[in-house]
Amino acid sequence: MSDNHRTARRARAGTTESPWVRRTLIGLALAFMFLFLVLPLAAVATEALRKGFGAYVEALKEPDAWSSIRLTLIVAAITVPMNLVFGVAAAWAIAKFEFRGKALLTTLVDLPFAVSPVVAGLIYVLVFGAQGWFGPWLAEHDIKIIFAVPGIVLATVFVTFPFIARELVPLMQAQGTDEEQAAIVLGATGWQTFWRVTLPNIKWGLLYGVILCNARAMGEFGAVSVVSGHIRGQTNTMPLHVEVLYNEYQSVAAFAVASLLAILALVTLVIKSVIEWRHEREMKAIADLPPERPPTPATVA
Question: What is the pTM (predicted TM-score) of this model?
């Protein structure tokens, strides 16, 4: 095979690198995935089932474990809808409008990415703790936020806020405002424009952001650890319960709960892959549609 043929073949493949370079890169990527993804998951499953499936089930049925599972699901069920509303509103404002303070709003959306979750938890303790700014007033009215479910929800909302907004902002900016303006000119109200024009255009990005937000909400440790107080059976989420069990040398129970978190993560990954596949399929179907022909004089007549 001549050099010209080899170059043309590599260009069709999307790369000009030689085959051994591609194989080396693929091998390194697969080795990395095996070492840092497959092997840890296999270790978690092995340790969780080390004393048999019966011991695994008993570890999950234990009251404190069940309480941590229930609390994790409750926090995620509260956090994700809140961030859904906040994220869509922030993305819509940033992508569709020009206003004073837009740069500040964009910076605030990205703030949780720059602040350590532990620092975020300490901020809430400073504001709502017993010695915090609003602590005496909250204690006087018998309202408990820190070391209770509301504090866990607030900390989780803070660390997961950017996921939906950051997924939607570039998507909305790329789509522009032409369709919304056309709908308004045709007499649609603001809500009609949102439900019938904007929302269908962002549905896949929105679902993707919701999945990422939910995964982070269930797995958050740092901020929740600060505001929860580690009250066993009351304010321990699944990650915190795993830490408690492991520190007490209950390795089988710890890995059993950790395996449930891993299963939830894998389910999230599968849903994410299905959404990406559906989105790519829809985009391909749209791209394959024949272009509309302009009306001819006979058709107009």
Answer: 0.80
